[in-house]
Write a structure and sequence with these properties.
GO terms for molecular function: metallodipeptidase activity. The protein is of the alpha/beta class and about 375 residues long. It contains 18 helices and nine strands. It has two domains: about 300 residues, TIM Barrel (Alpha-Beta Barrel); about 45 residues, no CATH class. Helix 5 links the parallel strand 3 and strand 4. Helix 5 crosses helix 18 and helix 13 crosses helix 14.
């Protein structure tokens, strides 16, 4: 009897060890939402998708924190907002020095993982936050910026966004000479070029300009949901040829082609509440509205299987070495059923195993591919 119990215990231990992979998420917006919530992310939170307690429970080892503001903060404001959010990350690390550390290279990330410390990294979401100044780009790189998303939904004077290219009204879509100069400067600074949010013309210009592999920090598959923010199969193939990695976005609107219509009806039905929330929470009002009407909003969420289909499709098109995880947690109002916070990443591994994915392949998706491209961009 004791022998049988020991064998079962050993099997459980071995299975648990086999399932543990370095887990890196390349996109979380909690630092910008924290400006409204004032949450202490070192403590367990009842709101949002991230805190250090839940991260440990979900096996999250490293997070690239998105530094973001929308286009309403223009010159004289966007760069200051970026630094304000970076300051809040520095303060979080200072409050939790034994739990987490800022890392700036693949070697430092591996060291933090060995030490059991949570690895924090910085990604700037939106080229408008450098305010068209090369010295601001250099300054943010010195503070720890490890990727720059060239555009958010709004274009910059030097790069055009997916939203703006979709209108067809741009005279000169893509990168201009200043944009190519910025991409090359990023290559020398060890700042990964992020093409999530950019238009197809910009995407093509980036691949023709960069000397390093690039990332899509939070984008999903266009062929499964033809949203302008998702990557077409041809783009996935081109990204793979470049050596880059596409990190799958969890947002319901990028996963489920029927979500947008349901959400628009939901917003119309609750327009009065949304108007009031807009005054308090700005761009985070839809998230608050979904919290207010949780039972109703939950009915709009796609099944987890849809997200798994995106991951599997992107692997089949780009290859197992070119897909990762970029959740967009704390930056969207809805995610697939079962993905409520950073505690839920293990569910993805379970579903991938059901499709026949081996542990080595899951390890690449969960963190190995990020580690490789991080090393190829940053030599320290």
């Amino acid at each position: 009897m004791k022998s049988l119990l020991f064998s079962l215990l050993l099997l459980v231990v071995l299975k648990t060890q086999a399932q543990k992979h370095l887990l890196v998420d390349t996109h979380n917006d909690v630092l910008s939402s924290q400006l409204f919530t004032k949450a202490d992310l070192g403590k367990l939170q009842s709101i949002g998708n991230f805190d250090l307690i839940r991260a440990a429970k979900g096996g999250l080892d490293a997070q690239v924190f998105s530094i973001w503001c929308d286009e309403t903060l223009g010159d004289g404001q966007a760069f200051a907002r970026a630094n304000e959010e970076i300051d809040s990350l520095y303060a979080l690390i200072k409050r939790n020095p034994k739990k987490m550390v800022l890392v700036n290279s693949a070697a430092e990330l591996k060291q933090a993982y060995k030490q059991g410390r949570f690895a924090a990294m910085i990604g700037i979401e939106g080229g408008h936050m450098i305010e068209d100044r090369m010295d601001y780009l250099d300054s943010l790189a010195k503070r720890g910026m490890r990727y720059l998303t060239l555009t958010w939904n709004n274009s910059t004077p030097w790069a055009t966004s997916a939203r703006d290219e979709a209108t067809g009204k741009l005279k000169h879509p893509g990168l201009n000479d200043k944009g190519r100069q910025i991409v090359r400067r990023m290559n020398t600074l060890g700042v990964m070029v992020d093409i999530s949010h950019v238009g197809e013309a910009t995407f093509n210009d980036v691949l023709a300009t960069t000397s390093k592999p690039v990332i899509a920090s939070h984008s999903s598959a266009y062929s499964l949901n033809p949203h302008r923010r998702n990557l077409k199969d041809e783009q996935l193939k081109a990204l793979a040829k470049n050596g880059g990695v596409a990190f799958v976005n969890f947002y319901s609107g990028f996963i489920d082609p029927d979500y947008d219509a349901k959400e628009q009806l939901f917003l119309i039905n609750h327009a009065k509440d949304l108007d009031s929330l807009n005054k308090l929470y700005g761009p985070y009002a839809p998230m608050k509205l979904n919290e207010l009407y949780k039972a109703e909003s939950d009915k709009m969420r796609p099944p987890l299987s849809m997200l798994i289909q995106h991951i599997d499709h992107m692997v089949k098109i780009a290859g197992i070495d070119h897909v990762g995880i970029g959740s967009d947690f704390d930056g969207s109002e809805s995610y697939p059923i079962g993905l409520d916070s950073v505690t839920d990443y293990p569910k993805i591994a379970v579903e991938l195993r059901k499709l026949g994915y081996k542990e080595e392949a899951i390890g690449k998706i969960f963190g190995g591919n990020f580690l490789r491209i991080f090393a190829e961009n940053v030599s320290k």
